[in-house]
Amino acid sequence: MQGVEKKIINNVPIVKIYTEKFKTVVVSIYFRTPLTEQGATTRSLLSRMMVKRTSEHPTNAKLLEYLAEHYGAHLTSNVIKKGSDHLLKVSIEFVNDKFILEDMDMLGDITALLKDVLYSPFSYSEEDQAFFDREKRLLKNRLTSMKDNYAQRAFESLLETMFDDEPYRILSFGDIEVLEQLTLDDVKAAHADMMANNDMSILVAGKVDDKIFDALANVHQLEEPKLYPYKGYPIQAPGDVKYKTTESRIEQAKANLGFRVLYSEPGDVMALNVFNQLFGGSASSLLFTNIREKMSLAYSIHSQVDIKNGYLFVLAGVDNDNIKVFEDAVKRELDRVLDGDFDERFVEEIKRNMLSSRKESMDKPRGLISLNYNRLLRDQSTTKEVKEWTEQLKAVTKADIINLATKIKLDTVYTLKGGNNDD
Amino acid sequence: MMTKYTKTYYEHVDETVYKQVMDNGLQVYIIDKSGYNKKFATYTTKYGSTDNHFKSGDKVYNVPDGIAHFLEHKMFDKESGDVFTKFSEMGASANAFTSVDRTSYLFSATENFEENLTLLMNMVEIPYFTPEKVDKEIGIINEEIKMYQDNPGYRLYHETLNSMYENSPVAIDIAGTLESISEITAEHLYLCHETFYAPDNMVMILAGDFDIEATFNFIETHQNKRPTTTPSNIERFLPEEPYGVSCYNQEIQLQVTTPKVMLGFKSLPDDADSHLRSKRDAAMLFALDMVFGEQSSYYEDLLERGIIDDSFNFSYQEDNLVRHTLMAVETEHPETFTQEIIRIIKEVKDSDFFSEKRLQSQKRELLGDYLTSLNSPEYVANQFTKYLFDGADLYEVPELINSITLDDLKEFFNNSIDEMNVSSVIVKPHD
Q1: What does the pLDDT look like over A90-108, one tens digit per residue?
Q2: Across the interface, which of B108, B140, B152 has its CB nearest the CB of A296?
Q3: Mode of pairing for the β-strands spanning B27-32 and B202-208
Q4: CB spacing of B88 vs A138 below 8 angstroms
Q5: Active-site amino acid positions of B
Q6: Tens digits of per-residue pLDDT, A317-346?
Q7: Residue B321: pLDDT band by 50, 70, 90 thresholds?
Q8: pLDDT tens digits, residue range A345-399?
Q9: pLDDT at B1 over 90
């Protein structure tokens, strides 16, 4: 009993994902626009402000009280980097009618609240300066304390080194220096632009009937269609490998490697997906079993990819004395793939596991939403018939993976190295 | 044929649970999650990082700190190779964790469920340790311990427990220390496995879309083939813990940008039964949230004055080993933070602070959060085990929530937080 239905009402696509297995309903509203440094930071701050107070619930305490009365409905916002775009997402999760004991129009109240959330920044005035200052300060604290996580700090530094003057260097939640310069007018302008010009979509998952379309259509209308194609950055070959090391007082070094994949045919994208799982994306991967388990060279190690852009990252925690040995070991594992020194059976296993985690993601309302959002973006980016994800996955062979590996080029090695440990 | 299992339907949450106790004492529960693709299994022993001093048979043993966690790591490493790999080969993803009072092994799969379950049972039930493998593991766990040493949040939490508790094993790092784990031998591991991995000291929970009868039969067939064991008779020894905190003020220097502070208000476990403990746990959550939550005027004031930011968090923890309230924040004014928190606690105790209207909406909120959590089979299986070990029932939480009164909040807040019995730990940047 699961069905997906899409309607475009007033130029906004609304996707209903019907399922009875959850005790809650989730609505997500996406706003998509090209990623810029100023934009990412402003929208990051805006996204925080939007879910803190609204015109109808003018203090954070009042808004929280209203949500609590609605069985602790979870109102959240976040910002995401995707392809060459920046997404601002507002979501709300609330319990199914059948668990509600009082007489309450949950759906009516929730959609009215969403509209209130989306429209409130239009009415920000000088009186909201203190609110703005406070959220700015809180976001600054958050950005600062993220750097206290050494793995996160090392990854940020890898991005800065690798994508020196490319926009991908920018983090989805913004930059402290840009944040310092922001004014309330910047936030209002970013909001007005978002509401008028962003590619907007609404997705809902749960046990809901067709009334949901009209209810959600009321949340926001667009004057004209804004269904922009979804794309990554142009493929760019790296020059000489960039090396950078920073010293810090930590016990364990963080060694990060960044690679670029020179995509040249459509099948490369899914091949990279499989390659990543096989190389370092899972506990049975080459990096994990050979470097961590057999050689005991790292406690933590994994690889991750930005599949749209063809970027591959290897992130590890290693002993200070083993950094060079580690780097060579990673290169050796890449050579192993190039030499075809891995089983067909292993490839099939990896593919099965990928299929399994895809099925697992459908056991979560948010997983269903993000999967269907990807499908929505795909459908509006091409008029060609695209094979389903599952079929693309099944088609990947060992030869495809070896062929893909020839297109992987090391770009940057970044190390956060432990220095004198006198504590 | 009579069925050997029982079925319980919990109407208010629309959940169904099946239970069968195997002949060897192993309890198995199946939680129905119709429509889910994933099947989830946990196999848990009532054995955690605090079980270091115990009597089994007529002998008393003291084993090195960190051994439960060490054992957990070693259970995946068999003569025929790494069991993680085998799960993966059969399309499952496996994991394990050790806490203060239990060790859990788990996997999830969308196919080959029975093969994976057999693998899980054999892995957990049949030990295999050698001195060589133990030595190699010491190296791996050393790295894990070091990694945690670099995590300021973990260090802060751990130092706070250490400052509060003088003798209690809850203050011991779950992974042990570099010294303690170097003393672990294969013999220790066999002893602890034999003692604590006995079928009647374990619970298995399955969550997903199952054929109930066939699944119980499958597990029963496997369990009946195991060698018979005598009922285990484990006695755990806990050292006497004084009321007062062990250390009032502690400061450590780490590579951080903003100072972090944690306050630990200690109040020892009393003779409350599990029902009262669960009730006190929920009532304290309401009370703390009313006083310090984002919608309170105290929170607003502290935030406006820049004493806290949105990293501020608090929790109350109570079980048979511990009972304390923790509060933490990242702030440039750790001393002011401590003074203000203590002032607020006194003020609340001396006034008629708690509100009935707010309690009613808190109850709805908690109920909503709880229902949301029930979407996750992982959450359900893990929490079901936790409640079971504590003598309670996860699905009776809504009734528990409803039974809480305003007087409970006042009473528990006044009796569970002693503002004079508090440890303060500050993590500061290097000078």
Answers
A1: 999 999 988 998 889 999 9
A2: B140
A3: parallel
A4: no
A5: 72
A6: 998 888 899 999 999 999 999 999 999 999
A7: confident
A8: 999 999 999 999 999 999 999 999 999 999 999 988 877 777 889 999 999 999 9
A9: no
Asked if A251 and B146 come within 8 Å (Cβ–Cβ), the reply is yes
Which amino acid, residue A198?
N
Q: How far apart are CA B352 and CA A389, in angstroms?
A: 60
Residue with tokens 């852009």: A309
Query: What is the nearest CA distance from A197 to chain B, expressed in angstroms?
Result: 32
Asked if the C-beta of B313 comes within 8 angstroms of chain A's C-beta atoms, the answer is no
We find that the CATH architecture of domain B249-429 is 2-Layer Sandwich (3.30)
CA atoms within 13 A on the CB side of B47: 33
> Residue B131 class from Cβ within 10 Å (0-12 exposed, 13-18 middle, 19+ buried)?
exposed
Residue of B nearest to A94 (CA): B368
CA B41 to chain centre: 17
Parse chain B into domains and list their residue ranges. Answer: 6-236, 249-429
**CA B386 to CA B46: how far, in whole Å?**
10
Q: What is the pLDDT of residue A292?
A: 85
CA angle (B325 as vertex; B319, B326 as ends), nearest 5: 120
**Hey, is the C-beta of B112 within 8 angstroms of any chain A C-beta?**
no
- Best to test chain B binding among A141, A153, A357 (most B CBs inside 10 Å): A141
pLDDT tens digits, B59-87 = 999 999 999 999 999 999 999 988 988 99
- Quick check: A407 and A258 in contact, CB under 8 A? no
pLDDT digits (tens, 9 = 90+) for B116-145: 999 999 999 999 999 999 998 998 888 888
Give ipTM to 2 decimals: 0.87
pLDDT over threshold 70, residue A419: no
The full set of domains in chain A, from first to last, is 3-217 (3.30.830.10), 242-418 (3.30.830.10)
pLDDT at site B269: 86
Q: Alpha-carbon distance A183 to A187, whole Å?
A: 7
Q: Which of B140, B253, B364 has the CB atom closest to A423's CB atom?
A: B253
CATH superfamily of B6-236: Metalloenzyme, LuxS/M16 peptidase-like (3.30.830.10)
Closest CA to B417 of B263, B294, B206, B191: B263
Candidate from A2, A72, A145 with C-beta closest to B369:
A72
Per-residue pLDDT tens for B322-359? 899 999 999 999 999 999 999 999 999 999 999 999 99
Count Cβ neighbours within 10 Å for each residue of B341-379 and write b for 16 or more, e otherwise.
bbebbeebeeeebbeeebbebbbbbbbbebbbbbbbbbb
| Inter-chain Cβ pairs, chain A and chain B, closer than 8 A | 170
- Say if B6-236 and B249-429 have the same CATH topology: yes
Which residue, among B95, B97, B90, has the nearest Cα to B41 in the 3D structure? Answer: B95
pLDDT of A245 reads: 95
Question: A141 vs B330: CB contact, 8 Å cut-off?
Answer: yes
Interface of B with A in 338-367 (CB under 8 A): 358, 361-362, 364-367
Q: Hey, are the CB atoms on B309 and A144 less than 8 Å from each other?
A: no
Chain A nearest CA to B396, separation (Å): 15
Asked whether the beta carbons of residue A353 and residue B82 sit closer than 8 angstroms, the reply is no
